[in-house]
Amino acid sequence: MKKNVLIIGAGGVAQVVAHKAAQNNDVLGDIHIASRTLEKCESIVKSVLDKKALKKPGIIKAHELDALDIEATKALIAKTRSQIVINVGSAFINMSVLEACIQTGAAYIDTAIHEDPDKVCETPPWYGNYEWKRRERCEKAGITAVLGAGFDPGVVNAYAALAVDEYFDEVSSIDIIDINAGSHGKYFATNFDPEINFREFTGKVYTWQNSQWQTNEMFEISRTDDLPVVGERTSYLSGHDELHSLSRNLDVPDIRFWMGFGEHYINVFTVLKNLGLLSEQPVRTAEGVEVVPLKVVKAVLPDPSSLAPEYTGKTCIGDLVKGKKDGADREVFIYNVADHEDAYAEVGSQGISYTAGVPPVAAAILVAKGTWDVHKMVNVEELPPQPFLGLLNRMGLQTSIRDEHGERDLSFDDWVPAKVEVGKLASKR
Amino acid sequence: MKKNVLIIGAGGVAQVVAHKAAQNNDVLGDIHIASRTLEKCESIVKSVLDKKALKKPGIIKAHELDALDIEATKALIAKTRSQIVINVGSAFINMSVLEACIQTGAAYIDTAIHEDPDKVCETPPWYGNYEWKRRERCEKAGITAVLGAGFDPGVVNAYAALAVDEYFDEVSSIDIIDINAGSHGKYFATNFDPEINFREFTGKVYTWQNSQWQTNEMFEISRTDDLPVVGERTSYLSGHDELHSLSRNLDVPDIRFWMGFGEHYINVFTVLKNLGLLSEQPVRTAEGVEVVPLKVVKAVLPDPSSLAPEYTGKTCIGDLVKGKKDGADREVFIYNVADHEDAYAEVGSQGISYTAGVPPVAAAILVAKGTWDVHKMVNVEELPPQPFLGLLNRMGLQTSIRDEHGERDLSFDDWVPAKVEVGKLASKR
């Protein structure tokens, strides 16, 4: 049993993580929230207390921390006696937070791949550039590190594992489709940090096709699907974190990611990109001010966390999996539908933050209880998906399926842990 | 006879001014070019010498000058013994350059209304906010100040005066239409300093209708005309300098300005404006850098002077004038067509800079010769248009007309100065 959770980051996702951790503090123990800006952490603590989210009386506390400072992070882990760290800060801090966990013995959970601020779109598989280089050290030190445990990456990796385990004898393709059919009512806004959001789409699009990496341009290839609840939606072939582990851990020749965009989003993105305003290379104004254009764009856009109160509509994110079962062709879509207004009512965040913030808390609970406390570095698809998805059903993210029998919710209540050594799971799939 | 010309500014228009002044140095004398950036002035001098543009052996020299520094500007006027100053620098420096002229006795010519960097779109008439407040001082000191002597404002004001003088008994409306049917081959660029260009369209649109100021939003009202050479073109009701003097100096109830835009320009402009990236109010990045978004946009856009070599196509700018002549309704379009490639071949600038840069040199020649040396502050429509337009015909900007007899070039060779006191011209019209 591990307990006491240190949440690093204080954006919209961290807000969800804090609320969900508070709702489960009987399992998770003390809750600490740390970021560069103390006031943001304090405002999350206030929101948790205002909503009376703590399941039982307990500690929830805000801290100021520069998470790039490994010694400071180690000291905070030690001072708060945190055995689990949930890193939902900027993707630039992953490696320093992981290092602090390795040196202190804390379990590490994150929701996105590490990025170097100066590099956009490195060589695939991206996990190989930073995270997986620490795999041996984690195993040697017995550190549990669950990588990419948000929704996508995260839940969609569990969907992929579930499909391979339970629905197919052989999988030929996995198409992860991410649709936000919600509306924030602003002229334009990004649902996450604009800097991270845009960086996803300014580089090459890497996808796994015919068992090798293929590159395309963003917005080059689209598909239109009639999806549960949100209806007919167009999405675009995009690069995304989960492809970089799924391609290594599953024996599936085609694994692609499709992100839904409206025409307006694409137009604004295209204008900004073509003008050079999404560049992370500094420019100098006529007055001699040196500044990164992307950071100026970020400064003029709405703060993503400000969108929540007005956000309406739903998200639909899932895995369209094709393959063979008992000799016949089969196709299933395993998915979740989340509602922006419901998310705001419960935890004060919009639906995108909600889908990203609930899963790492479910992961933390499974680590705390031992089910996922594997004492090594893993991606989500290397772990048994059923306890994770079952817990998420109870925590507000219902898993559903659409197959030849129609659409229905899935239950995992009957799942019993198999006597399978966790390290063998990946190779089994 | 006044002589020796100090050109202030070193952009695309200044380049044209320098070349045209050089081509007329038998009248204008020494030519001096001054701006904040000495290298830009030196590069213009080099371009003039490379093209052997000096009509006769003479002085052309580059100077470094902060034109907001009145004492420095006075000193440079004195040192260069310049009796005519052509100000084609930023619209922010007009008042300091004019002050230096008033104090030294030099004639002053500019091509755009003064602007305060912190204010966008002040109360009309705009000339009343800055320039016209110095009218009495100019008259008292006998200073010739010709305001707005570019193309628009400038030549279009002369077209208006010509229409009122020669083609109508009564004018009911003047619609100034400015079409750039050229192509620079870039994704997006502005033809002038982006800062000034965008400021024209971010404020309210003031027009003179029913003998009063009316306000509209930019891109709210459009018209489509079949114009000489450039064909069918859509233009949009816009605010513009010349309306602010024509409405005062001519007794015409409707005076409007229409700027041609393609859909792509409007889309990029709309995205930038709605995102707040055209704002002149500073923002602060997450890293604490304070910067004006518009200046960052300017920094990423192509330098307007870099467009010239690839620019193709033509401009068509003119006055569509309606009214009565001899009791009957009449409509004439007085216009110029300029060619981007011709402009580049002659003076190394694109057509927009060419149309803006030739007229102030024509004005300077008329001041030098005495025809326009009126020892007071005037707008172009207060001066006899025929010698100005006749000179422009010979300098590369041909005036044409389209009326009930078709399209043809106009000649002003037969014009003889009337015995009219210059100060009376405005009230006569």
TrEMBL record, chains A, B:
Residues 5-146 form the Saccharopine dehydrogenase NADP binding domain. Residues 150-397 form the Saccharopine dehydrogenase-like C-terminal domain. This is Saccharopine dehydrogenase family protein. It comes from Pelagibacterium lacus.
